[in-house]
Amino acid sequence: MDMSSGNLNWSVCLSFSVIVNLICIMLIFSNKHTEKLNWTREAAIAAENVASTSCSGHGRAYLDGLITENGRPICECNACYTGPDCSVIVPNCAVDADSGNPMFLEPFWKQNAGSSSIMVAGWHRMGYEFEDGSLISKQLENVIHKLHETVGNANTSNKYILFGSGSTQLLNAAVYALSHTTYSSSSSTKVVASAPYYPVYKSQTELLDSKKYKFSGHTSSWRNKTRNDKFIEFVTCPNNPDGRLNKAVLHGKFTRHIYDLAYYWPHYTPIPAPMDEDLMLFTLSKLTGHAGSRFGWAIVKDKAVYDKMVEYVDLNTYGVPRETQLRALKLLNVVVRGDKKEMFRFAHTVMRSRWEKLTEILSTSKRFSMEQLPSQHCAFSKQVRPPSPAFAWLKCEADEDKDCFNVLRAANIIGRKGAVFGVENRYVRLSIVNSRDDFDLLQQRLQDLVSKDRSIVQAVTSL
Amino acid sequence: MDMSSGNLNWSVCLSFSVIVNLICIMLIFSNKHTEKLNWTREAAIAAENVASTSCSGHGRAYLDGLITENGRPICECNACYTGPDCSVIVPNCAVDADSGNPMFLEPFWKQNAGSSSIMVAGWHRMGYEFEDGSLISKQLENVIHKLHETVGNANTSNKYILFGSGSTQLLNAAVYALSHTTYSSSSSTKVVASAPYYPVYKSQTELLDSKKYKFSGHTSSWRNKTRNDKFIEFVTCPNNPDGRLNKAVLHGKFTRHIYDLAYYWPHYTPIPAPMDEDLMLFTLSKLTGHAGSRFGWAIVKDKAVYDKMVEYVDLNTYGVPRETQLRALKLLNVVVRGDKKEMFRFAHTVMRSRWEKLTEILSTSKRFSMEQLPSQHCAFSKQVRPPSPAFAWLKCEADEDKDCFNVLRAANIIGRKGAVFGVENRYVRLSIVNSRDDFDLLQQRLQDLVSKDRSIVQAVTSL
């Protein structure tokens, strides 16, 4: 072996080794930011492990779900699916179109997992109050202002914002505040709504049997009778259950309005113009789909009303959990980032397509009809938009179908009875905001029901 | 240069390079588990960045706090500290001993950051209900049973558990439920408490002016007068403000009790035996210090009462946020792990030492006195324990010091007036559960006040 060939071998080995060195060093440096992870690592790994559990697209595992004896997360399946990985369809299962569970937005948040998750430290905001003594995150308040400005659905300028445990808590906080800040000779306030109305207005107003206010039925009974009485009218726009853009009916001197705008988002309705009312309620549940987070907010013009609402929330629950506020902040920051339309495009596309499918199925039926909603100009999307409501408000047209709920129940569809909304049981509300599995099954069941009816009609006609 | 010395050089270089390679490869493999992090990485890094903000031990930065123009987190300083890193003491600052903000537990959670933090995915539990249709995490319910069994402060077997937005929400839920499930000829229920009492019992009961119940003052006014009337008595054990282990005072046929056991933990009192009452309330605020999480629970014996409480929480807020339940689960799992005493040791050590310091300072004073609490056997620690209450219940003994709050206020100490608790203003509550900075300052101010009084007395005596 001569000297040069010896050196050649060494130099090949060394070159190879140096190249490996460089690659390794690059790898280490490219991982520098993960190396920094210290106390967050355990929680991050736990979350990724649970998220990677396969549930066949018909369910998901959660961090606080049940686990197997081996410590593996157990899938929680969508309704009508079962089995360890949710791959088995439950035969003849009744589809749940009762609850307005906004699971149709879950895929959006799965697609945006990286930007929408939060790491809550064990020592995160343990105290009762924020630094300014309030119960409200200033950053979250700011992003809510920005959100409404972006969407153009509510004018928030020169108005107060407070938070509640869902708009649920704020409904009663508003009734309390308005009944204490409206002064007339009458001591008790009548609380009313236009039928069909969201049933919680009644049940919540009646819950504590207050001397100050009383649920007093439909607005239609009180038209032109509001001279000296105090009224609080719930105005729901778009209306739950029928999707109409309701307006206030009563206009007496001592009448006050609570605008429940839970569904006044581009997913569910064209937005003709920003609302600019004295008391408006919104909820995260229907905006981002996070119903489980129980986060709502009120936009209030009058300082005295705002103060009374704050008093109610303080004494009732002492504010909204700080981890919920942190999460709402993160989610809303995703909503208003970039071109500010990403989530709205996703949500509207789903809702519109579902409505079109239902309309098509029911268009051939004489037994059932659905609410007719107009196409309208939407200032947010800058175009005329057809309807895309959260619920189908179904009517059984046949004389004998007085109990429409049972007609549907017999076809394995669970809706919500008209009586719950203050109208006859000829009406049923069907939720179309649920998971895709739920909607697909609802669609199939309705299709079967309508086809069966049509073949009976054809058979009768051909006799 | 001869061949062997050339080869030697090459071999030295190659050996060095190979060693570097091996080290690099080891480094890469030791980082393997962090490399797996995918969608959780962004949130984890954000949380660690904020946590690493230096606030001189007198404050902390939060994920949802304000940021500088350069995007750097801004410290939120403890009271009486200021500056960008909380290193500046505010001169003549009034110390806040008003709020019972349990920040003394913050250091424990900072020490246990790794095991107590949670990663909440954007799609975590978006729906209204858990899989079983309830609003309650089964895993969390289980750990609460385990917790009480471990501590031995409450018998939960054969009882129902429900959750609320702090025990705050559950206080009124309990009043609602008991007034609806106790049947006597009297339609309205009298709600009472033994003075000094926690002021929310009164203000919350009066908030909605219900026809069903009415706050009716002190138990002492109703002793031996309970024959046909319906009573709900709040029994607070240990009592807020004075730390006594209160027992029920009224025992009529139609009298029901709500046991508020917020402070019935080994931090604040010896635990003589497990409570086994029909309706007991607890809160995370005073157990782990997470007051901002607004999480409480009720342990209820009677199914009808439990059902009514569930109805109240459903209609009032539709349950406790799912991210709060997830966090409570994580925190309580830390509490009951290992020898199950780690957090209790920490908490008791702090509270006991603070009480000893206050006792020592005030032992030399004739102007002020504090509640005297007995040492008792504690079944949890298996030893006789001296008191370690959450509050000092101070009395100004001098005839002229009728307004004890103002006496302290003049010495830059903010307490809470006796009148708030239904007694004379000769009493003031001082919170000793706040941050260490707050306590240190309180201690110093009290020391100054007592020393000043003593020197005046000495000067007068020597005249």
Automatic annotation (TrEMBL), chains A, B:
Segments passing through the bilayer: 7-29
GO biological process, one term: amino acid metabolic process
Boundaries of every Alliinase C-terminal domain copy: 95-449
Pfam families with a match to the protein in the record: Alliinase_C, EGF_alliinase
The keyword Chloroplast is assigned to this record: no
Domain Alliinase EGF-like: 38-93
Alphabetical list of Gene3D superfamilies matching this protein: Aspartate Aminotransferase, domain 1, EGF-like, alliinase, Type I PLP-dependent aspartate aminotransferase-like (Major domain)
Superkingdom of the source species: Eukaryota
Keyword line: Aminotransferase, Membrane, Pyridoxal phosphate, Transferase, Transmembrane, Transmembrane helix
Necessary cofactors: pyridoxal 5'-phosphate
Entry annotated with the keyword Membrane: yes
Molecular function as annotated in GO: carbon-sulfur lyase activity; transaminase activity
InterPro entries: Alliinase_C (IPR006948), Alliinase_N_sf (IPR037029), EGF_alliinase (IPR006947), Ethylene_sulfur-biosynth (IPR050478), PyrdxlP-dep_Trfase (IPR015424), PyrdxlP-dep_Trfase_major (IPR015421), PyrdxlP-dep_Trfase_small (IPR015422)
Family note: Belongs to the alliinase family.
PANTHER family for this protein: BIFUNCTIONAL ASPARTATE AMINOTRANSFERASE AND GLUTAMATE/ASPARTATE-PREPHENATE AMINOTRANSFERASE-RELATED (PTHR43795), TRYPTOPHAN AMINOTRANSFERASE-RELATED PROTEIN 4-LIKE (PTHR43795:SF56)
The protein's name: Tryptophan aminotransferase-related protein 4
Lineage: Eukaryota, Viridiplantae, Streptophyta, Embryophyta, Tracheophyta
